[in-house]
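protien #1 (seq + structre)
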Amino acid sequence: MASLHDRLKEAPVSGKADDLLREKEEICQLIRRSCQLLDQEKYDAWLELFAENCVYNVVTWENVQAGYAFDLIRAPDKPHLAEWIGIVTGFHQVERVKSLHLLSTPLIELSPENQEAQSWAGFALYRTGRDGVTQLHCVGEYRDVLHKVDSGWRIQRREVLLHTSTLPGTLQVI
């Protein structure tokens, strides 16, 4: 039986609907790629997925519900995000683990001009330690604002909303 994706590709669609599907698929690929690059520890390539004037922050669901303006991580632009990656990865040289992001299908809303989008995706992050034991590290949501540039889509703003309020071990790249 053909998958829904294959049936959509084969179905006759108008030019606008086809463009909309193509844009949404490019955005889905970008979000999935961001998880894959983190799992592969390819942080320079991961940074390239972000716009130069991006904002990246990680906050717990608890803090949002309580109205606290406290972010676990806040990078107001790409240079700060790169600096944070350098600090975190340098700190974790001793405690290397393998990670695996499991991602829900992103929900995407495109602007009428298809130049900006908002997306939401749930995720679960598993870590396998040196002892070979895999544990659930955290769960949460990626709330992204994306912009289209000449070279494709870039993440303009990513808010990582953690449902897990206490991270086991030390805070690592999410």
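ok now protien #2
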Amino acid sequence: MSKLVWTAVVALGLSSTPVMAQSAGRILGGAGIGAAGGAVAGAVIPGLSVGEGAAIGAVGGAAIRALDKKHRHRHYRSRHGGRYWIDRHGRRHYE
């Protein structure tokens, strides 16, 4: 893999660290989905290897999940194991 691709992977990977209390598991999930899609794209697109496609897809998936504004709230666990988050009015929303 070329140095340019590795540089892009590292730079975007570092910039997609947890943003505003994002969970690392959610971002890693996006990276996994992106890697799978990128590997398929790398197998289909001429001139792009499977590894390069997977790396680019992983970075893209992680970045998209990190910048997702819909899920920008901190999750908590209740005493009974339920998962919830609190909106700006102080109301709990269980998932």
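The longest strand covers residues 83-86.
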